[in-house]
Specification:
This protein is mostly helical. The chain is built from ten helices and six strands; from the N terminus they run αααααββαααβααβββ. It starts with 6 loop residues before the first helix and ends in a 17-residue tail after the last strand. Bound molecules: heme C.
Length: about 325
């Protein structure tokens, strides 16, 4: 009773099947899970032993059962087992798809001409080829109408869709990765929750030197238009993150505060702008003008009753005339 020929095949097949399923379900990045997780190696070793054990047990049971059979039954059993299992259906379909005549019937399709003993069989085109050819024709017609007659999407549009989808993904990612900001990417937060959190950080860490109202004591006034180290969210964030000039007392906060927290407290600082607290420190540094802000402080000087000259802060006189003047 030796019919374990297939077990050397069954064992690796089962093993790699399970390995494949495991790799499919375990997300391990670019590297296969077996290499990434030692647990997975232990698991696969266990599976291998298990498969071998199962094979062994099944073979042993079969052997024992076989010994209990009568001689005649033994023969019948072996005969049944050795009978070849055939892919009858697959073979039939394969033949049909080829559409070729059997050798015996070739006389029917041989052509008359004969060149030096070489003759030609007039075989039909194989059905698999013909069907595929029809399919390409149908595809071509559908394609032509869909994209050239009725104007479907083209590569440019597909590109834009993908960019838009990627943009949305980035936005989504940014929401979950709030600490990914730095001085170049930080944006002014206006959400009440963020400002509240910023206020808490400010009173806890900064008020000792800047006063609770931001009016300034050791550190400068944070509520006026004047900044030593630059105003605007990016500069303020940078000052908080990197600290002020050496020896002045403003330390770098990036080791104590997360980027998201620095953005919150920076936004809170800017929200105090113009609050004019009592006993505020005198302005220090330079007047800060947001380069992106709309130009303000336009003075209108009346020269005479009809001529109007607009004087901007930078002395530029080319600006358009204000639309409305009361003088006639
Ligand atoms: C130990 C005192 C001290 C603490 C605490 C402190 N600062 Fe300052 N801060 C200063 C000083 C001093 C300066 C001026 C630095 C300079 O001139 O270089 C300053 C400058 C600043 C500036 C720049 C002001 C300008 O005019 O450019 C900002 C913004 C600022 N601090 C915010 C904060 C925030 C937010 C906190 C809390 C997280 C904080 N500071 C904590 C002392 C302090």
């Amino acid at each position: 009773m030796k019919n374990n020929r297939a077990s050397w095949l069954r064992i690796p097949v089962a093993f790699f099947l399970i390995l494949g399923v495991m790799e499919y379900f375990i997300d391990s990045g670019n590297k296969p899970a077996v290499l990434t997780y030692p647990m997975a190696q232990v698991f696969m070793l266990f599976i291998l032993l298990l498969i071998i054990a199962v094979e062994g047990i099944v073979a042993a049971i079969e052997n024992v059962m076989f010994q209990t059979l009568s001689e005649e039954a033994k023969e019948r059993y072996l005969a049944a087992k050795n009978k070849k299992w055939e892919w009858k259906w697959a073979k039939k379909t394969y033949k049909q798809l080829l559409g070729s005549k059997p050798l015996e019937a070739e006389g029917e399709i041989i052509l008359d001409h004969n060149y030096d003993g070489i003759r030609e069989l007039d075989n039909k085109l194989p059905p698999w080829w013909v069907y595929m050819f029809y399919a390409t024709i149908i595809f071509g017609v559908v394609y032509m109408f869909r994209f050239h007659v009725f104007g479907g999407y083209d590569q440019d549009l597909e590109y834009e869709w993908e960019v838009a989808a990627a943009q949305a993904e980035i936005e989504e990612y940014k929401k979950t990765a709030k600490d990914l900001i730095d001085a170049n990417t930080v944006e002014l937060l206006t959400d009440a929750g963020d400002l509240k959190a910023g206020e808490t950080i400010f009173t806890g860490n900064c008020a000792v030197c800047h006063k609770v109202d931001g009016g300034g004591s050791i550190g400068p006034n944070l509520t006026d238009d004047y900044w030593v180290l630059g105003g605007g969210i990016k500069n303020v964030f940078n000052t908080i993150s990197e600290g002020g000039r050496a020896g002045k007392g403003m330390v770098s906060w990036k080791t104590n505060l997360k980027p998201s927290e620095m953005a919150q407290v920076a936004s809170y600082v800017l929200s105090m702008h113009g609050s004019n607290p009592a006993d505020a420190k005198a302005p220090e540094g330079e007047r800060w003008m947001d380069p992106t802000a709309p130009i303000q402080d336009v003075q209108v000087q009346q020269i005479d009753s009809t001529t109007i000259e607009v004087i901007m802060d930078d002395g530029n006189t080319d600006a358009p005339l204000p639309p409305d003047t009361d003088s006639e």
